[in-house]
Amino acid sequence: MPAPELTREFFGRADGTDVHRYTLGRPGGLTVRVLDYGGVIQSLDAPDRAGRPGNVVLGFPDLGGYVANNRPGVDRVFLGAVIGRFANRIAGGTFTLDGVQYRVPLNNGKNSLHGGPAGFDTRVWSAEELRDADGVALRLTLVSPDGDQGYPGRLDTEVTYRVDTRDRLRITYRATTDAPTVVNLTNHTYWNLAGEGTGDVHEQWLELAASRYCPTGDDLIPAGAPVPVEGTPFDFRRAVPIGARLGEPDPQLVIGHGYDHNWVLDDGAPFAARAWDPASGRLLTMQTTEPGLQFYSGNYLTADLTGTSGRPYHRGAGFALEAQHFPDSPNRPDFPGTVLRPGEVYHQETVFALATAEEPPAA
């Protein structure tokens, strides 16, 4: 089995800065293409049950697609990007830390979403190529100054993408600060295990190691404490097709126009999520150190988005599995904390492995 390789190529310019695309992987195995713009995973090739490679994540074919999607006033879809400083929503764009109230920009109705209108997905990161006997990696670094998007403290952030000889993609996040702040980082890749641009993901099966989830109000902010998934369309403890219950008249499905909720991951589970496509046989397994998983069923994808295949993305063209802390955590002392203080290190890891299987995963 050949060892993974790492190459770099020019991909365009954003605000006068060169942007590069890095390819990590090996022929016939897992191959990931990452941009230093937004830390974007642009494509990820993995073989199907017949050994044929195919791209299984959504992305734009050129830099212009990402830049246009990040313009002010555009309802961003965050294809494949690093999300920060704070993934998910902060109610009212306000939070209080050590007795001081902070305001962050509103870009999702009355809420702040995914770090604000100029979050980490809009930045060009510094890149360093790494190689060792077991794989290759791309380390991206970004300095977010004090007051960036309203957040206190300078935040020094590292995100490392690593592909190893066992065809696993490991994403490692690390951050430090010089003043108390809040941090919640994730990656917003959309998956379609049948292949990017092939249609919706409603026939693909999903299993989540989560016995509880967070119901929301109309603004998609968690309302009350997490509740059991048992007896609801949010029970994915055994694998079921993503679309099997999308049409049920559950108030939470109506609010989100589908799934766009945080699941509370069970302690000690061997994985966070598994997904399987019956057409290709591809099986995705996800592990994470994070306490929550935002599963989003691509409810607001629209046909005006043209993907790397040249085909449009319609509703449900991909699903996102965002490992993170819970939405609105800075305003919820009952949720796992997201405060980072000087001298502390924010650290999390999420690992994706792709294989093939003839049947959906069994609990």
Structure description:
This protein has 363 residues and is mainly beta. 4% of the residues lie in helices and 42% in strands. It has helices spanning 63-69, 251-256; strands at residues 5-14, 17-25, 31-35, 41-47, 53-55, 82-83, 89-91, 94-97, 100-103, 111-113, 126-132, 135-144, 155-164, 168-177, 181-182, 186-187, 190-191, 205-208, 210-214, 227-228, 240-241, 260-265, 273-276, 282-288, 292-296, 305-306, 312-313, 319-324, 339-340, 346-356. The strands form eight sheets. A nine-stranded antiparallel β-sheet has the order 11-12-13-14-30-24-23-18-21, with no helix packed on it. Strands 17-28-25-22-19-20 form a six-stranded antiparallel β-sheet, with no helix packed on it. Strands 1-2-3-4-5 form a five-stranded antiparallel β-sheet, with helices on one face. A hairpin with a 5-residue loop joins strand 23 and strand 24 (282-288). It is globular. The two termini are 31 Å apart.
Quick synopsis:
With 363 residues, this protein is mainly β. It contains 2 helices and 30 strands.
Task: Write a concise keyword list for the protein shown above.
363 residues, mainly beta, nine-stranded antiparallel sheet, six-stranded antiparallel sheet
